[in-house]
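Chain A, query sequence.
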Amino acid sequence: MDDTLNSRQQMSTKNIILLVLLLFIPVSLAAHFLEWGELIVFITAGLAILPLAAWMGTATEEIAVVVGPSLGGLLNATFGNATELIIALIALNAGLIDVVKASITGSIISNLLLVMGFSMLLGGLRYKEQTFQPIVARVNAASMNLAVIAILMPTAMNYTSQGINQQTLQNLSIAVAVVLILVYALTLLFSMKTHSYLYDVGLAEAEAEAEEISISHAKPNMALWVGVLLVCTLLVAIESEMLVDSLEVATSQLGLTALFTGVILVPIVGNAAEHATAVTVAMKDKMDLSLSVAVGSSMQIALFVAPVLVIAGRILGKPMDLDFKPFELVAVVVSVLIANTISSDGRSNWLEGTLLLAAYTVLGFAFYFHPVMEGMG
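Chain A, predicted structure.
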C-alpha cells in the first residue's frame, strides 16, 4: 500500500515537473525568433526537449498497452531512442559529423555508466542486494562486444593503413552498418519470440509498472496517444533544429568544446526520460526492468541508431562513417568492459553503482579537459 502511495506521489511530482518544463517550448521559440542570443536558445531548447522526450515515452507505452506485448515491444524498441536519433539526424544534415559521432559515444557511455550506476546505487541503498537475470546480462554483453568490434574496425583500418581515402572508409562503414542492423533485428527476434521466456521477469515487471501507473485509468485512447506521439515528435524536431543551430556558438560561450557537448550534454538531454524511468523502477526493486532500459538503450544506439545515421549520411551526401576518434573509442571500450564485468553475476549493490558513477565521472573530466580536436568547433 505504501509503495503504491509513494509511486503515485512520485508520478504526480514528475508530472508537475514535466508541465513546468513544457513552458520552455514557447520560451525557446521566442528566444529564437526574437534573437535573444544563441546561449539562451541552446539552454531553453535543451530544457524543452526533456518533457517532450518523456511524453513520447509515455505515449509509446500507452499505445503498447493497446496493441499487445509483441507489437508493443517493437514499438518501444523503435521509439526508445527517437529523440537522440532526431537530434543526430539534424546535426548530421547540418554537417556536424563529429558532434554526431560524439553523441553516439556519449549515449552508449551514459546509459552503461550513468544510468546503470544511479540505478544500482539508489536501488542498493534501499535494498541490500538486488538480483536480475544473469543470462540476459550475458546476451546483452555479447551484443555490446560486437558493437565495440564494429566501431573498432573502421578506426583500426584508418590508423593502420597508409593513404586510405574517405570513400573506402564510408563503404566499409555501410557494410558494417548493414550487419549491425541485421544483428539488431535478430536480437529483437530472440528477446520477443524464440527466447522470450528469458525476458519474462522484465516483461512481468513492465506490465506491473504499467498497471500501477494506469490503476485508476480506463483503457488508453489509441487515437489520443498516437496524436500525442506525432505532435511530440514534430516539436522535438523543431527544438532539436534550434538546439543544433545554436550549439557551436553557445558551447564556445560556455567555454566547452563540441566534443564535451556531444559526449556529455546532448545524450543527457536526449536520454533524460529513460534515465528517470530506469532509476525509478530500480528503487522499486525491479532491476531486470531497470537494466533492460539502460543496457537496451545502449544496444539500440550501437546496433540501430549509429548504423541508420551512417546510411542516412550516404543518402544526405554527408561523409558519416564509423571511424571514431581513438579517445572516444577508448571511452566506449572502458564503459562496455566495466558494465559487463559488474552485471555478469546477476547481482548488484550500492558499491557497484558507485564504481560505475566514478568511471563516468573520470571519463567526464577527461572529455572536459581534452583539447579541441581538429574539425571540432
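Residues 2-369 form one domain. Residues 150 and 176 are 6 Å apart (CA to CA).
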